[in-house]
Here is the input.
Amino acid sequence: MSRPNAFKLVMLPPQSAITRDWAARLATEVPEVRVVVAEDAATADREIVDAEAAFGWITPAQLASAKALRWLQAPQAAPAAGYYFPELVAHRLAVTNFREIFNDHISAHIMAFVLAFARGLHVYIPQQLRREWKKPPEDAGVVHLPEATALIVGVGGIGAETARLLAAFGVTVLATDARRTTVPEGVAEMHPPAALDALLPRADFVILTVPHTPATEGFFNRARFQRMQRSAFFINIGRGMTTRLDDLVAALRAGEIAGAALDVYEQEPLPADHPLWTLPNVLMTPHMAGYGPYLNDRRYAILADNCRAFAAGTTLRNMVDKTSWF
Here is the structure.
C-alpha cells in the first residue's frame, strides 16, 4: 500500500533514557520520520490524533482519537495480556513486535536447564548446600542425550534455535507450531498443535516457548502433565500464564513427572510461600532467560527498519496477528 514518504511517529509514555536516545537516532538516521516523544499522557493524547505511527502502549481512548494511525510498534516481543484490547484487534492498523531478539540468549538458558537435569544437578546442588557427599550407582541419575527425545511446543525463533542446539547433543527433537510450515534445522518431526497430547508420552523433555495467547492460556494443566512420562522433565521459558502452577505442583508431588524448570510464572514475583520454592526437583530463575548483551541494539534495529519500510510502503518486520496476540 502506498504512503507518503514523510510520517509522524509518537513515542508513547512512559519514556526512558533508551527511548529518548532511539528518538534522537531516528531523527538522524531515518529523515522521513518526525518523532514526537510524549513524556506524559496529555501530550500523547494530543499528538496521537494526526500521527501515522506510534511506539509503545496505546489506550483505547487514544486509538479512538487517532485519525491517521496505520502502524503500532509494540515495545516487547509478547506484550502482557491487555495490550491487544478488542478495539485494537478490530482496527485496520498493523502491529509489529520485537520477537527474534532473544533467540540466542533464551535457547542457551533452555540448554542450561536440559543439561542440569540430564546430569543430575537438581540433585547435586541441594546436596552441596547440605554438604552431603552422595553418589548414585554408575548407571543411574543421568539422561543419555543421544537416546533422549525433546518436545518443543512452539518453534518460532527461540524454539528453532533450541532445536538446533539439542540436535547437536544428539537429542531427537519433536515440535509443534501453529504457524510454521517449514521444518527447522534439528527438528526430526514437525506437527500441528492438535498433536500435542499424542506427542507428550514420547518426550523426555517438554519445552514450552509459546507466547501467552487466548489459545495457550492455562493449556498446560494436570491432564497434560499426566500424559508425560514419569521420568520426563518440564521446562517453561515462554509465558507464565500458559501453565497452571497448582497443577504443576500437584503433578510433581504425585511423581507424575520427574522435575520442572521455570523462568516464568502465573504470578510474578512468585510469592515467597509458594510450594515450588521448596520442592526438591525444581529449578527456577526469576524471568531472566532472555538476559544478555545487545538487546537494545536489536530492538532499535527493528524499530528503525520498520520506520524505513513504513516510509517506503514496503513490508514491515515482525507483523503480528492481532487476534492471536503474536
